[in-house]
Amino acid sequence: xxxxxVSINGRxxxxxxxxxxxxRLVGLAHRFDAAIETLRRQFGEIGDQRLTVMAxxxxxxxxxxxxxxxxxxxxxxxxxRQTASSVGERRHEVEDGIALRLDQAAERLEQLADSLLDPIxxxxx
Length: 125
What we know:
It contains two helices and two strands; from the N terminus they run E-E-H-H. By secondary structure, it is mainly α. The longest helix has 77 residues.
């Protein structure tokens, strides 16, 4: 298991993580530290513990909003997939209908050509 040192709210913490996850953990710690710094600028020195709790709540709020948006996007993707499936099925039905009508038209054209050629064939016999 790997270990990294991260700085949050002016303090250094040693944290364990899976091998290869070091950069990710440092990045997450940096984002959390930035949230604390944002709150510090807004509210001033209100105590480390209170600042950390407020930052945690703020981050969880952002996470919650992201999860809500993801759920809406997943619903939209699902609806689009269903529509695409329906359109694909309908396209096949339309193509089959067109093919049938083309076959019928070709048959009628052959019959018409035969009826026009019948008198000519009869004369030549």
